[in-house]
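Table S5 (text form). Sequence records supplied for joint modeling of the three-component complex.
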Amino acid sequence: MTLTQKGRWITLVALMCLAAVYVRALAFTPVERLQGLAQKIFYLHVPAAIWTETAMILVGLASIFYLFLKDARLDRFAEASAEVGTVFATIVLTTGPIWGKPIWGTWWTWDARLTATLLLFFLYVGYLLVRGAVRDPGLRARYAAVLGICGMCLVPFIHLSVFMFRTLHPQPIILKPSAPSLPGSMLATWLLSLAAFTLLYVGFVTQRYALSLMRDAHGGGSPSHV
Amino acid sequence: MGELIAQAWRVARKDLVLEFRTRTALVSAVVFTALVLTVFNFGRDPTAVPTIDLAPTILWVTFTFAAMLTLNRAFQLELENQALEGLLVSPLSRTSLYWGKLIANLVFVAVVEGVGLPLFVLFFDVPVGHVLAPLIGVIALATLGFVAVGTLFSALVMRTRFAELLLVVILLPFLVPPLIGAVQVTARLLGGRPLSESVGYLKLLAAYDIVFVSLASLLFRFTVDE
Amino acid sequence: MLSAEGLRHAFGEGGGQVVALDGVSFNLTSGQTLAVFGPNGAGKTTLLKVLAGLIRPQEGSVRVAGGRRAIGWIGHQSHLYEHLTVRENLLFWASLYGVPAARRGPRATEVLSRLGMGDRADQPVWSLSRGLAQRAAIAKALIHDPSVLLLDEPFTGLDLAAAAELRALLGELRGGGAGGRVVVLATHNVDEGVELATDVAFQRRGRFVHFAPRGGRGSSEIAEAYRRAVGGKETDG
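The corresponding structure-token record, covering 689 residues in total, follows.
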């Protein structure tokens, strides 16, 4: 099976998982008392946000290794992760308002998570712009790596500053120091969603990586040093 | 180590001699600052919102944009007669080059802020005398972070198309965390709050500076070599 | 003094790849002047940049006795700051190259008078004529008394008189025997550099298709050999 095909299968499985999550969410988990039906979107929104951030950290890690090892595969992976991260950021930034409107009466809120994801979105866009602006593959990979590492290091600062600044968002109920305070069935659904998004990330990145491989084989793209 | 600093200082001194001899960039930056402050005056209704509430925002937006515009001068300077190539052929270490440019940029921005702050006080009638020392401290802390990252990125965009525009786009997300810190501390200072209330944000600024000055020093050579 | 081993370097990727260096190796000692002739695009500038340490080759290595401090570079661009005076430029570059502080001033004066520019020392570079600016660039390259000189098409844009002057200067500079410098001169015009050479190489598509001491060969002989090797092409790749 080629890389692209593997990627497609993984994505398919992920989407099926996601569908299963939704069935569970709509039919089998209780409706949240304060937020009603709209709260269901939380199963989509939060794992996507987690992966938006994780994708950036992975871009950064791949970039560090690229600067040491100069392996083109690391650069391709970084590029793929950045593009997928942008997609996930977009998911968060669109589902956020959809969730927010019925609950807070407004489409956009500068709450901590949305703001942080917005900043990540800009980071991704900047990263992709730099990639697009440099013609020479070696230079492009190097510059992107520098930016990727800086972006990864910025993530904790984004968290700190944005969370210090404002919170309208429901306080984190999953990633708290103590045990998650969701009731059992909601937690299970949420974890399933996280797993589905993990698979989705892997599936998307695999396909995007395969695309880069094909493009590089035909000339132009990531550098390949012997 | 001593040699590193000595070399950095030689580069910085050369930059500053050139800038103060030609003065165009400096004067433009100062005039820009004055203009932005002037424009802000027309953007508000002094009867509706007390100046003091908007003051930190006005100050920091002005300083941020003035600083960003001056960042490109550092490497534009080296374009005439390909002086950068000369610097790279010489025994000058890349780290010394970064520090030299950083120091020159900091002095330059300090001059611009040195004119901007009194103008700000004048135009908006904001009393700062009682908090001048801590205010200057915060300005210095935040500016160091901006300029450290900005100097690295200005080298990165040097060889791309639309360098000035690209610089601003990739830099702004990095400026948001220190900006949040700076504005919050400034607001508290101007509002007469004790410094102890700002400790969290000050720590944020200090941590940002330490992380990004180190990171930029380390990554610089990857942006400037061919 | 200067040795290159198995240099390989290519730009781009896949079908559009340009091979600038394809297995170049050589060894030079004091007093040798290597003239590298080749059409545009043959990789001469890349070779010089690799020798100078500007580009790290994808394969192979370069060793220069004395490191970057020992290298003087003369290319198309002068590396001078227009709004500094000639002397200020020289002092700056001298400081970067580790010339001791006390020596910088006297050394600058020395180099300038050797190039006949003593009276122009305190003029800003923007006010110099083309020819004088060129000489100032050479002064900058020599300020730290480099033992290796790398010249990338130095005769470009010079009229006959200026070119002759430069040739004479280079002849003086390289010295002879054990005390002399190592010079690597790259040019697409055989007639320009052939007199100065002790060793000759023809570069095509990144390779040295000919590399030998000049021996007793006359300029026209070498020029003829070059034209045969290159086949009258002006550009490579």
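Note: The first helix of chain A runs from residue 3 to 28.
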